[in-house]
Every structure is written in C-alpha cells, then in structure tokens.
Amino acid sequence: MSQISLTFPDGNSREYDAGITPAEVAASISNSLAKKAISATVDGVHWDMQWPIKGNAAISIHTMKDETQALELIRHDFAHVMARAVQEIWPDVKVTIGPVIENGWYYDFDREEPFTPEDLGAIEAKMKEIINKREPVTTEIWERDRAVKFYEANNESYKVELIEAIPGDEPLRMYWHGHWQDLCRGPHLQHTGQLPADAFKLMNVAGAYWRGDSDRAMLQRIYGVGFQNKEQLKKHLHMLEEAAKRDHRKLGREMNLFHMQEEAPGQIFWHPNGWTIYTELQNYMRRKQRTGGYVEVNTPQVVDRKLWEASGHWDKYQEHMFIVEVDEEHAREKSINALKPMNCPCHVQVYNQGLKSYRELPLRMAEFGSCNRYEPSGALHGIMRVRGFTQDDAHIFCTEEQIEEECARFIDFLSSVYKDLGFEEFEIMFATRPEKRVGSEESWDHVEAALENAIKKTGHKYTLDPGEGAFYGPKLDFKLTDAIGRVWQCGTFQVDPNLPERLGAVYIGEDGAKHLPYMLHRACLGSFERFIGILIENWAGKLPFWLAPRQVVVASIVSDADDYVQQVADALNAKGIRAEADIRNEKINYKVREHSVGKVPVILACGMKEIEDGTVSMRRLGDKHSKVLPLDEVVTTLAKEATPPDLA
C-alpha cells in the first residue's frame, strides 16, 4: 500500500498508509485524542473522522474545544437526532431536509397532524434518550440507483426527489445515527453521546413549502437551538427573552410611536411621538454633517429609466425597483420612470452641474434621501425591514490621493456619532477585491492600502473579508453590538470609480486636463427607520433623555394643583424640554404606571405641598422612589439633560 505524508499544525509530518481515516490518525497520536476527537480539517476542508485520506495533506484534529467546528457538528447532529426522534414517535411521518442555521437548525416534516407544544416536549425527551444511548454514527457511499431503491422501499418520496435533483451520476453519501438513516454530505460526530444533552431546545414550529414552492406541499418546520454546553444555551435563551421584551414593534405600540397597515405594506405611519424621535435624530445628523464639511442636497424621488439604465441599476436592480408609468401629456406613449432605490446616481447629476476643479475637491454631498425598494412581504419586519425608508446618505467626490484622508475622517465622524447614540465600540469589516473586478491591479493595490492605512490611523481594529468587495472597489462595513449582544450592520464606506465614469463625472486637474473623480459612498446610520428600531431595542425604549419623544409628564395629585401643573409644564417647555401636563381625574399611581409603560423618562407629581413650597416630586423611569426638589433646580437640571450631545 502506498504511503502518504500528513502535516500537522505544529509543522511536523508523519507517514501513513493511503486511505487512513482521521479517527485512525487520532488513535495513532493518543487514546485520549481518539476519544475526544469530533472531526478534522484536511487541506482546508472540514472532514469526517471516518472519511479516508488518499493523498499528502495538511491535517488538524478537532475536539469540542474548537468552537466553529464543534457548533457545526453539534447542530447538524441535533437535526438528525431530532428527525430520528420524530420518526420513532410517529413512524408515518416523512422527512425532507434539515440544515444548520444561525444558533441551531431546522428540519422539515410531512405530517398530517400539526405539531403541538406538547409534541415538542415529547421530541426533546426522545432526543435525550437517543443521545444517552451513545450509538455510533456511521457512513457509507452508495450508488445512486441503490439509494433511490432504498428510499422508494421506505416510502421516502422527498429523498428520492432530492437525489434526482443532484446533478451528475456521482455516488451519494449515506449516514446512520444508530439504526436511523439519512442522506447527507456530512461531516458528523463519531457517536450520539458526543452531543451535549443539556445544551439544546426545540423552539417552535412553522409552515414551509417543499423547496420553497407555493405550489408544492406545505410541510412543518421544527426549529431548534443548540450549543456546546448548558451555560451557552441559558445565555442564548436569556438573550431571546430580553429581545422579546425589547421588540421595537411591542415598544412602538406601548410608546405610541408608529403603526403599519396592509394598505401600505412595508411603509410606516409615524405618530407624533415616533416622528419626534425621527426629527430629533435627523436634526442631530444634519448638525453633525454641517460641522463635518458636508453640503446638503435634495433630489427627486421619481426618475426616468434612462438614468437608471446609464447607471447600470436598470439591468442589475430592476426587480427591487417600483416602476412608475406616466402618459406624458396624453401622448398615448407611456414614459417609464422608477422610484429611486438609492441616491447615488442623482448625486452625480448635482455634481455634473458646472465643471469642477481639483481645488473644489473633496466635495462632500449629503442627503436625507427617501428611497423605495421592493422587499418580499415575507421579508418585511416592523420598521427594521421596510419598502420605504430614508437614508443618511452622502457621497464624497475626491481624487485618488484624497481617499485615505477622507476614509480616516469618516471613521472618526462615524465613531463620534455612534458614541453619542450609546454605542461605544463597533467592528470594521474590510471587504477586499473580488475575483471578478474591473480596474488595474495597481489601482486596487493603492485603494485597498488607503483604506487599511486609514483604519490604522484612527486606531481601530478590523477584520478582513477577502473577496467581498464590489466589482469596482473595496468597502468597509461597520457593525454595532447592542446591549444584549446582537450585532447590527449599519454604517458603510465604499470606494467607487465606476459610477462617475458611467455618468460622465469629471474634474479639471492641476494639469488642466479632465480626470475621473472617485465617488465614496458613505452612511452612518443606514436607514433612519431601521436605526430607530435598533435604538429602541438597544435602550429597551428608555431612550437617552435628549432623544426621548415625551421627556417629562407633569401630573396632578389633586385637582386643586391643575394650574400649578400647567405652570410647571410651561416653564419646562420654555427651556426647550418636551413636557406635557396630565391633569386627568385619575389617581397619581395610575398615572405613574401608565406613563412608565410609555417609557417617559421623568414624571413630576404636584400636590398642595408642592404648590406651597414651590417644588415638584420627581421620579425617574426605573426608580422606585421620588425626590422632592425645588422647581428651579429641576428645570435647570433637565434643560441640561435635554441638550443634544453635539450641542452640550
């Protein structure tokens, strides 16, 4: 038998017989490793412990300490064990597919009766029983005809269809978890006992069409989550509980911020409270951008298709655009327009009005641009995923030499904005040149180096995202982590020499000749709608005082205090504090509860004692006790807190 050489992570190599499996390699190293091993990586490919290695390769053996590989296998095996549990309880149920997803897995089943919460409990119990049996996980390669006959004999029509959809005549890999069998690429754990029986939970059941086709059978999809240990599971479930409490849709109702209805899918009806947040945030960004050297413009929402064709969006983005047909002056020949899905082509039109000199660059052009994009109804999610939105969009027209400085300037700008809004840290993803691209290698080298130098200059860490840049330039994506650990991608910075060239943008250089400018696409918040949703959930509705829509409610304890309550509210409003009087004939405890649910940061209660002393009883949201303070002191303190951070 021929020999092969396997190289380990420490650089050492060993000779083995060709066809050796990672399980045998682990055993050759130590019995301890053989017991702990769950999978291997062979020449960069995640490898099952049972798969033979036929040639020279680099190899590393994984245990449960290797989080990435461990979680992939754990979740994949949980999916199989769950499907086995379902068929052991209900033998007539047909199985389909069960992939790994973020934090867990799902598996689709064809069953006449709907699964109930009690059923999920029974499945979980059966899964633990299977895990505790510690049965081996085995695999074989079968010819296609044999696999088809096997599934036909077992009345598994969905598996037959899956096999028929696999191109070519290559053999198929079959897996067994104990006696239960499934068609799968693998890899998998060595035995069911390697699964952590206390680190999973079945979450819910949803409907799913077979292969995503609404004309096919409606299946039942069971979702589960799985982790390396029970502590991680507990942490995840706590995060889900917190996320449910913080859901912006729930808080939006409680705070009376907005609503959505079927007559305008994906569009938001902002109520006065929600619109206050919106305008305060927009005013803050407007001031920041003005200070940052931006000029603000406003461009049309409905634009002729000719511009979208010239920009390239008509061919590449048309399915996401809302088309508007207009019969111009009843000429019986309709003009084709589109609601703008982004602002960049229109900004080039503003730039093109009048020939620019290199002395006018960089030109930083900003717009709170209203955009519309078609999103499938199933993808819509509150104000986080909508069809109509406004971006804090800006484009910087500059020379190639100015890219590094503009990038560093933007990172500092974005950092200050995020800090003001309660996000101290963010992650930068640096997406570099893709395989298919335009432009010279020298230009790519220069631009990528400019972005990398800019990040380093600002002192931020970054993660490379190789090959994920646009075909015309690299980009930076900025990701925030909220109060409960969720990551949101919001800001972006993208280098684009392509659109200026397509739309005829030039500047006169120092040499007197025409040159193409670079266009830097940038956004801090992304869409206002989505970012407000993120803010609401991050702060659990308890927004910073300057941004809270209802900052103060002044409530009467007795009706004789009504006039004083109004005087206090007027004094606060005169200092720019959003205050309202509550003189309803209700008990003070009722008022406090109601306004606390509405997340009002400060409630001032006034009775006869407060009138006599010129004081108010102040209670902040979340505090159990009130403080009696002089009215003047309260007005001064709250006026300071109401000042936006850029003006403080």
Automatic annotation (TrEMBL):
Domain Aminoacyl-transfer RNA synthetases class-II family profile intervals? 247-544
Q: Which Gene Ontology terms cover its molecular function?
A: ATP binding; metal ion binding; threonine-tRNA ligase activity; tRNA binding
Q: Give all residue intervals belonging to the TGS domain.
A: 1-63
Which CDD domains does this one have? Answer: TGS_ThrRS (cd01667), ThrRS_anticodon (cd00860), ThrRS_core (cd00771)
Q: Where are the transmembrane segments?
A: none
Q: Which domain of life is it from?
A: Bacteria
Query: Mainly resides where?
Result: cytoplasm
Name the family the entry cites: Belongs to the class-II aminoacyl-tRNA synthetase family.
The name under which this protein is listed is Threonine--tRNA ligase
Q: What gene name does this entry carry?
A: thrS
